[in-house]
Write a structure and sequence with these properties.
Keywords: ATP-binding, Cell membrane, Kinase, Membrane, Nucleotide-binding, Phosphoprotein, Transferase, Transmembrane, Transmembrane helix, Two-component regulatory system. This is histidine kinase. One of its GO terms (cellular component) is plasma membrane. InterPro entries: HATPase_C_sf (IPR036890), HATPase_dom (IPR003594), His_kinase_dom (IPR005467), PAS (IPR000014), PAS-like_dom_sf (IPR035965), sCache_3 (IPR033463), Sensor-like_sf (IPR029151), Sig_transdc_His_kin-like_C (IPR004358). By secondary structure, this protein is an alpha+beta fold. The chain folds into three domains: 223 residues, Beta-Lactamase (2-Layer Sandwich); 84 residues, PAS domain (Beta-Lactamase, 2-Layer Sandwich); 212 residues, 2-Layer Sandwich (Heat Shock Protein 90). The protein is built from 14 helices and 15 strands. The strands form three sheets. Strands 10, 11, 12, 13, 14 and 15 form a six-stranded mixed sheet that branches. The N terminus and C terminus are likely disordered.
Length: 530
């Protein structure tokens, strides 16, 4: 059994062309009928007016009123009436008595007979026009009284047969048909041009395909978990799905806006390709991709995708901190093994006092650092972080000191937020101090309680120029290379995010150590209220 292939439905453009042509034919036909009816009406009107004018002229003839009452009326008026009929192209000119007795007629045998038609109004001195079937068939006629000294002495009837009127109408029909064909041709050409343009715009798709495509696209836009923005060639938003509006905190329509209007600033003045660029949006960190959209090799706009990396970035920063602490612990383990071997060797050599002094000095230094941190910080996570960062800094040739005025009680900030703020600030400071050269220094001062937390971190690095300080937190700026291509400069952006969440602020200035000084002031009360 052969399965017949399903015929592809007509395109929208083809259907529109068919409908337009059908409407064009209908309108041209209606117009032609109306024009023909109007021409026929005009022909009848012209025939009545022409018959009436000729009848008036004959009735006003000076010899007609005089001769009509004499016995020679027929002999004199018949040649005259026939001459008028031939000269005017009418079908009959009948001169009769007030009672309707004919004195003239195109058919001489009808002379002396009674006129067939309405003469009652004419005998009373009025002009009468009508369509009537007489001896010559249906005709349009006019009956006009002949008066002499105010008295009706006779009647004149001039008629044009209906055949003649219809022939006049038919003579106008070719012109009407020519005009109709011209209008139809122009309309068909316009419909074809519209069809071509519509075909290009709809890409030759049918209404079922367009409907199905819209339904599928709408379902995909709603189902995809990435923010999606479609831009036109000028970089203005044409379409945004729900996830994009959520990430951009824009419940209303985004149509017509540019990326800069919704906070998606880039370094390029004009739209350009962007790959995995981190962008900070208020309290979010998103990864932005932008690629050109093409159809059949023709550029039609841009496609922008947004992925929420806020939680992932925060977890990554926390993981980096934990990795740093683990590295420091491994280094300490290595150093502890070295110190243990040293003490064992001193004991084996009989240098017991030297071994005791060495062990006591190492223990005192470690205990002093731990006691300082534990006494000042009543937050286990923060204690571990400071101790780990101190060891990490030491391994990298940077001396990290905790200010003696540091005092942190139990904080309402979550452990995650503490690690995000303090860990990122110390990481940046240690990187800057190490990059500036040997003998790098980092100084940290913390003061906090249930009401809030203040963190001040100074370093001996190169510092941050004053004209760039406003960009550090606004766009995830970084002056460090990015070999991974995943984007840098998100750490301080996360710090700014936590600060805004708790109604705080981040201040960047110059440090007495020669580098940068970053101050973070947080208010947990404001954060809880929000």
């Amino acid at each position: 059994m052969r399965v017949m292939a399903r015929r592809r439905p007509r395109t929208v453009a083809a259907q529109m062309l068919v409908w337009q042509l059908a409407m064009l034919v209908l309108l041209v036909t209606i117009g032609l009928v109306i024009a023909y009816a109007d021409a026929r009406h005009d022909a009848y009107g012209d025939a009545r007016a022409r018959a009436l004018d000729i009848a008036r002229s004959v009735a006003d003839g000076p010899q007609v009123a005089t001769v009509i009452s004499t016995p020679q009326a027929t002999d004199v008026l018949q040649p005259y009436a026939e001459r008028v009929r031939r000269d005017t192209g009418t079908d009959f000119v009948v001169i009769m008595s007030p009672k309707g007795i004919r004195f003239t007629h195109p058919d001489p045998t009808q002379i002396g007979g009674t006129f067939r038609g309405t003469i009652a109004g004419a005998t009373e001195g009025r002009e009468v026009t009508e369509t009537y079937t007489g001896t010559l068939g249906p005709s349009v006629r006019a009956v006009v009284p002949i008066t002499n000294d105010g008295r009706v002495v006779g009647l004149v009837s001039v008629g044009i047969r209906m055949e003649t009127v219809q022939r006049t109408t038919l003579d106008a029909l070719p012109g009407l048909l020519l005009v109709a064909l011209g209008v139809g041709a122009i309309g068909a050409l316009g419909a074809w041009l519209v069809q071509r343009r519509l075909r290009r715009q709809t890409h030759g798709l049918g209404e079922v395909e367009i409907t199905r495509m819209y339904e599928y696209y709408d379902a995909v836009l709603r189902a995809v978990r990435e923010g999606l923005l479609l831009l036109d060639g000028d970089g203005r938003v044409m379409l945004a799905n729900e996830e994009a509006r959520r990430l951009l905190d824009a419940p209303d329509s985004l149509e017509g806006q540019r990326l800069a209007d919704v906070g998606l600033t880039t370094d390029d003045a004009e739209p350009a390709e962007v790959h995995d660029r981190p962008v900070v949006l208020r309290d979010r960190v998103v990864v932005m991709n932008q690629a050109p959209a093409q159809w059949n090799g023709r550029f039609v706009g841009w496609v922008v995708t947004l992925r929420d990396r806020t939680e992932l970035q925060a977890v990554t920063a926390e993981l980096d901190t934990v990795r740093g602490m683990a590295t420091a612990l491994r280094a300490q383990n290595h150093e502890a093994a070295n110190r243990l071997h040293t003490m064992v060797s001193l004991v084996e050599m009989g240098e017991t006092d030297a071994a005791i002094d060495f062990a006591t000095a190492e223990l005192e230094m470690t205990r002093s650092l731990a006691d300082t941190v534990v006494a000042a910080v009543d937050e286990p996570v923060l204690e571990a972080l400071l101790l780990g960062k101190t060891s990490q800094a030491q391994e990298r040739g940077v001396r990290l000191t905790v200010d003696e005025a540091t005092s942190v009680e139990r904080s309402r900030l979550t452990a995650h937020e503490l690690v995000t703020v303090v860990g990122n600030l110390l990481d940046n400071a240690i990187d800057a101090a190490q990059a500036a050269g040997p003998d790098g220094q980092v100084h940290v001062l913390l003061h906090g309680d249930e009401a809030g937390l203040d963190v001040v971190v100074d370093d001996s690095g190169a510092g941050i120029p004053e004209d760039l300080r406003s960009r550090v937190l606004a766009s995830g700026w970084s002056d460090k290379p990015d070999p991974s291509g995943q984007g840098r400069g998100v750490g301080l952006a996360l710090v700014g995010q936590v600060a805004r969440l708790h109604g705080g602020e981040v201040t960047i200035g110059a440090s007495d150590l020669g580098g940068a000084s970053v101050t973070v002031s947080l208010s947990t009360a404001a954060g809880s209220a929000s």
